[in-house]
């Protein structure tokens, strides 16, 4: 207590500055470093469960920086004011199927510049680029690094492997 | 909103892959056109069709069936790009009218059959 009254609270200006620095650093870290967020819904089954997922997101990959095909990203959904989690299947200049494999339609598109193509892992239950088209890279908030579980961390690896 | 994008059938992939998103013709390091089968490494990624068996029940069993997607990782003078070749060289391509010789080549690689529901689910 003597530390509080004699140290911090005794110097209101110093305390205000310390709190301001702490808040600024926290904001910097969460905005440009790493952040966490819950994820709910069936669109990324079986990679992510419907409920109870808490994700670690690298904001260093915001706006699609260094994102690769196969990565899972958090993004601002272009048709409403919320964020979603999907897998990137195409980056600018890449070629992707317009619909899911096996849909009977083999139409393809080239992803336009500044955009990416995102699709949920659970194809029948996902609203993604198949519905609203390629999304601007600027809507990508970050790359999902892994799942935070009680007392452990599960890293999400990029599954795009050599087919052999 | 994204700009208007032209669609093309999967059989036109070899010719469509010759032009970048900026409209410039793609060339390999030694100046050749891109040959998907020769210049690009084949890769695979699995997505799923999942069914929540009892949606009204919490912690319901979930069954998932794999959907194999195929990609080719290519390199031109300006860098790497990815081409999804599921409908061009996957097992389905060999059985459809838009199938190509690539479909037969793919069968030899043995990636498996896409969009085929397994008798045993992956997860329950």
TrEMBL record, chain A:
Biological process (GO), any one: signal peptide processing
Swiss-Prot/TrEMBL keywords: Hydrolase, Membrane, Mitochondrion, Mitochondrion inner membrane
Gene3D superfamilies tied to this protein: Umud Fragment, subunit A
GO MF term list: serine-type endopeptidase activity
Gene Ontology CC: mitochondrial inner membrane peptidase complex
The Peptidase S26 domain, residue ranges: 24-97, 110-145
Residues at the catalytic site: 43, 86
Alphabetical list of InterPro entries matching this protein: LexA/Signal_pep-like_sf, Mito_IMP1_subunit, Pept_S26A_signal_pept_1, Pept_S26A_signal_pept_1_Lys-AS, Peptidase_S26
PROSITE patterns, alphabetized: SPASE_I_2 (PS00760)
Subcellular location: Mitochondrion inner membrane
Record family assignment: Belongs to the peptidase S26 family. IMP1 subfamily.
Protein name in UniProt: Peptidase S24/S26A/S26B/S26C
Organism: Schizothecium vesticola
From TrEMBL, chain B:
Span list, region Disordered: 1-26, 90-124
GO cellular component: mitochondrial inner membrane peptidase complex
Pfam families (alphabetical): Mitochondr_Som1 (PF11093)
Domain of life: Eukaryota
Residue ranges with Low complexity bias: 93-108
Name of the protein described by the UniProt record: Mitochondrial export protein Som1
Organism: Schizothecium vesticola
């Amino acid at each position: 207590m003597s530390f509080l009254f004699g140290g911090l609270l005794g110097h209101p200006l110093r305390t205000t500055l310390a709190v301001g620095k702490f808040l600024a650093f926290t904001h910097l870290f969460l905005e440009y470093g790493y952040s966490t967020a819950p994820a709910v819904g069936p669109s990324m089954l079986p990679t992510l469960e419907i409920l109870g997922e808490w994700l670690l997101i690298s904001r260093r990959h915001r706006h699609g920086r260094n994102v690769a095909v196969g990565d899972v990203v958090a993004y601002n959904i272009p048709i409403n004011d919320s964020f979603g989690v999907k897998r990137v299947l195409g980056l600018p200049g890449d070629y992707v199927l317009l619909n899911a494999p096996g849909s009977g339609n083999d139409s393809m598109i080239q992803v336009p510049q500044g955009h990416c193509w995102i699709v949920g892992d659970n194809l029948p239950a996902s609203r993604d680029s198949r519905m609203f088209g390629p999304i601007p890279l600027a809507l990508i908030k970050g790359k999902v690094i892994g799942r935070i579980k009680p007392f452990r961390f599960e890293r999400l690896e990029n599954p795009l492997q050599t087919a052999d | 909103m994204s700009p208007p994008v032209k669609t093309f059938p999967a059989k036109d992939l070899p010719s469509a892959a010759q032009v970048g998103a900026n409209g410039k013709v793609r060339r390999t390091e030694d100046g050749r056109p891109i040959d998907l089968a020769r210049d690009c490494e084949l890769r695979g990624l699995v997505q799923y069709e999942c069914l929540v068996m009892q949606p009204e029940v919490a912690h319901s069993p979930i069954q998932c069936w794999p959907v194999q997607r195929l990609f080719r990782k290519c390199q031109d003078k300006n860098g790497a790009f990815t081409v999804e070749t599921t409908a061009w060289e996957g097992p389905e391509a060999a059985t459809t009218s838009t199938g190509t010789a690539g479909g037969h080549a793919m069968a030899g690689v043995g990636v498996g059959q896409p969009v085929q529901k397994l008798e045993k689910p992956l997860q329950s």
